[in-house]
Amino acid sequence: MGYRSNVCIAIAFDSVSKMQSFLTARKINGTWKHSDYASLDEWTVGHGDNFGILCFEATDVKWYDDYEDVKWFKGIREDAVENFAANAKELRVGEDTNDVEEEWYGEDDRLADVLNDYVYMNRYYVKDIETKPMKEVFNETK
């Protein structure tokens, strides 16, 4: 089965039009899709008044740097940062409690703030059993 992770790659552009230019370039040069799994069709899009964000999310996946699909996803991020002045953030949460990675790319402080505001780690716990307040339990047993 192998080790699994939850992954998010978020890319922020300084305008929606720059984000659209990036997407158009990927369509024209034939790099929109790498495989059935690795495709820009799997990404989501968000925007504000003066920024656009592309976001890829995957849960319970094998995420190893030497996997071809992972290389393709990271190439999308590299292209946006290097050729479209975007900022990017990669988040990965592994199965182990202390296996958390957060990596930043790009040089625009404003876009870094945008990513920080809209895409961030949030650790929480799950209690999957119905419980009652102690006071109720002791009143029931009297």
Mind explaining what this structure looks like?
- The chain is α+β, with helices and mostly antiparallel strands and 142 residues long.
- It has one domain (5-141).
- Helices cover 34% and strands 27% of the residues.
- The protein has 4 helices and 5 strands, in the order E-H-E-E-H-E-E-H-H.
- It has helices at residues 16-28, 68-84, 109-118, 134-141, and strands at residues 5-13, 44-48, 51-61, 87-94, 100-105.
- Strands 2-3-1-4-5 form a 5-stranded antiparallel sheet.
- The chain is elongated and about 70 Å long.
- The relative contact order is 0.22.
The global form is elongated
Structural class by sheet pairing and helices: alpha+beta
- H/I helix tally: 4
- The mean pLDDT is 89
In short:
34% of the residues lie in helices and 27% in strands. It is an alpha+beta fold.
What descriptive keywords fit this protein?
alpha+beta
Helices, strands, pairings?
Blueprint: E1 5-13, H1 16-28, E2 44-48, E3 51-61, H2 68-84, E4 87-94, E5 100-105, H3 109-118, H4 134-141
Antiparallel strand pairs: 1-3, 1-4, 2-3, 4-5
